[in-house]
Design brief:
This protein is mainly alpha-helical. 68% of the residues lie in helices and 4% in strands. The relative contact order is 0.08.
């Protein structure tokens, strides 16, 4: 089973995309190639599973046969590369080191003092932004390790997304899916078909945090290739927003972050490598951009918006500056990729429309609007939008930043803001703002454009600094300005704000996912939670301290004595608890006397269980 499970991951993550990569003769950076292969594999798998299921051929024997064919093709297409010495595989790293050395040599050649100061300040910003970016990347890498060996443990994944994957694995179309598209469940289903077991979730769950990691890596790649610290700062902004608005869902198995990944990837494809473009390069860019946008559309419904506006984005950001008003030429470049996108996207939505007409499923649109109106306690559109925008809290400042910098940032990022970030945010605010997850499509694009805007602001500041010869100002003047800034800062950073910031930072201790899941549960069930018998350090987390009863979970007899206390309503059980305690709790859950609320492995593995 383990061997077949690993093969299923190879199919999901790598094999189909690597064949397409070779077929179109694509060349890019290491991260660009890696993300291209991953995303392409997911889309090709979705199409393949859909087609095989429609023909009732989605069986283990058929899947293994196709996998064998792919393996043969892979070794044939990559035969030259496989014979390449290993030393050439690290050439990109050596080239990177060489570029750093050359940059240092160029700096030493600069004689003009102002130019040297400009380069120093720009380098300081780039290095600082890189440090912030690495913080986000390290967090995402840790998520991948924390997720290994876990199962689905959050409501929608348990009752919707994974059951849909199981229905696909049983060679049938899931019916009760409302309008939710199926790229994620179809790929998960491959793990069940490969191992011929519908109960083992480990392999399907493995890919869940990869989308968050790849989102951040795409922005890192833009920063490195363009040498713009703004993109690296965008990594940090995106990381913060994902933790703030999607933190509890990053490893849940929901489709919001995968959809956001495909959306960012489609835009990234047009932004990357725009220095010299021939028509063949433009065709490849459009093909891949629309291909990945179609991937977003079959991952979750908001992806349809991206696919709809993508031709406009391509026109304003890439095609019009090159071809002007040559509509015929532009149409000749766009129509084939758009037909491909329709062939990928239409079958599922057409099938769902039939189920709606037959009455075997419902659209869910009216429910979404009603839930949003109930969440904001109003039916007025202006009030809905206002209340939704306020939910952005301090991150509303990023919208303000890009609005102020809209005419200063580059053309591509400007059209991202005008065609996607602002319009989709308003659409979300008026229709589906009951949950911040529904804004996921915008989050990495907002982080990216805000980072670019802030980077441009820094660049302008450096130019002004050099122009007014700020470096020649006397030290006492600078000290005076610093004292004034500190004095004025006291009016901005009040005691209340500092306390709120302290609380927010303390909630990031140990396992932020667990902390926020516990806080959300308590907020939703205020009368249910009294005391939590726990080894997890709840006493250090604001909002959880008063619920903590510390226990080491070593003795079953002592455990039974503790839970006899009626104030103990919940357990936070560590993986290190004794086997007797684990067996006792498992029996109670099986009998229905206890309820498993969630199982989370971030930092350390714990189960949160309701016993009363």
């Amino acid at each position: 089973m383990f061997f077949l499970g690993i093969l299923s991951l190879l199919q999901i993550i790598f094999l189909p995309g690597s064949l397409l990569y070779k077929k179109i003769d694509y060349r890019g950076s290491f991260i660009q190639n890696l993300t291209f292969i991953f995303a392409s594999s997911l889309i090709i798998n979705y199409c393949g599973v859909f087609f095989l299921t429609a023909l009732k051929l989605y069986t283990q024997s058929m899947v293994l046969f196709l996998f064998f064919v792919e393996i043969v093709l892979f070794f044939w297409l990559y035969r030259k590369m496989l014979n390449t010495p290993f030393e050439s595989g690290v050439k990109w790293f050596l080239d990177w080191i060489e570029s750093i050395i050359k940059a240092g040599e160029e700096f030493l050649k600069i004689k003009n003092k102002e130019e040297r100061i400009t380069m120093i300040l720009s380098s300081v910003f780039f290095i600082g932004a890189s440090v912030f970016a690495l913080n986000g990347i390290w967090w995402a890498v840790k998520l991948v390790f924390y997720n290994t060996g876990t199962v689905f443990n959050v409501w929608d994944a348990i009752v919707s997304w994974n059951p849909w994957a199981i229905e696909w694995a049983q060679n049938s179309f899931p019916v009760h899916t409302v309008r939710y598209p199926q790229l994620i469940p179809t790929n998960w289903s491959l793990t069940y078909v490969f191992v011929d077991n519908l109960d083992v979730q480990f392999f399907a769950k493995t890919i869940v945090p990869l989308f968050t990691l790849f989102i951040l890596l795409l922005l890192v790649d833009l920063g490195i290739s363009t040498k713009k610290g703004g993109y690296l700062l965008g990594v940090f902004f995106t990381y913060l927003m994902i933790k703030k608005f999607l933190g509890g869902w990053v490893m849940a198995g929901y489709s919001d972050l995968p959809m956001a990944y495909f959306s960012l990837l489609s835009i990234y494809t047009l932004i990357k490598n725009n220095e010299k473009l021939d028509e063949e390069s433009i065709r490849k860019k459009l093909f891949l951009g629309i291909f990945f946008a179609s991937g977003a559309a079959v991952t979750k419904q908001p992806g349809l918006y991206l696919l709809a506006v993508f031709p406009l984005f391509a026109y304003f950001s890439l095609l019009r500056p090159i071809y002007g008003k040559d509509v015929k030429r532009i149409a000749s470049l766009l129509w084939k990729p758009m037909v491909m996108a329709i062939l990928i996207v239409l079958p599922w939505y057409f099938y769902k429309q039939i189920t709606f007409i037959q009455g075997s499923d419902t659209t869910g649109i009216a429910t979404i609007l009603k839930v949003t109106q109930n969440a904001h306690k109003t039916t007025m559109l202006i009030e809905l939008i206002k209340n939704a925008i306020l939910q952005l809290d301090k991150y509303l400042a990023l919208f303000i930043l890009i609005a102020l910098m809209i005419f200063f940032i580059d053309r591509l990022n400007r059209w991202v803001v005008l065609l996607i970030v602002f319009p989709f945010t308003l659409l979300w605010a008026g229709t589906a703002s009951y949950d911040m997850r529904n804004l996921a499509l915008v989050i990495p694009l907002l982080g990216m454009t805000a980072g670019v805007g802030f980077g441009k602001l820094i660049e302008m500041g450096i130019q002004l600094f050099v122009k007014i010869k700020f470096h020649r100002i006397k030290f006492w003047v600078i000290l005076l300005f610093l004292l004034i800034a500190v004095f004025l800062g006291g009016f901005r950073w009040t005691s209340l704000i500092l306390q709120e910031q302290q609380i927010e930072l303390q909630r990031q201790l140990f396992s932020p996912d667990k902390n926020y899941m516990l806080l959300d549960y308590i907020e939703e069930n205020p009368r249910v939670v009294n005391k939590i018998l726990s080894l997890y350090p709840l006493e250090y987390i604001p909002g959880l301290r008063e619920y903590n009863l510390n226990f080491n979970f070593n003795s079953l007899e002592e455990f039974k004595r503790r839970i006899d206390n009626p104030v103990v309503t919940h357990l936070m059980v560590p993986k290190t608890a004794s086997e007797e305690i684990h067996s006792f709790i498992a029996g109670k859950i099986e009998l229905g006397e206890y309820e498993l609320i969630f199982n989370n492995a971030q930092w350390k593995k714990y189960q949160f269980i309701r016993i009363r």
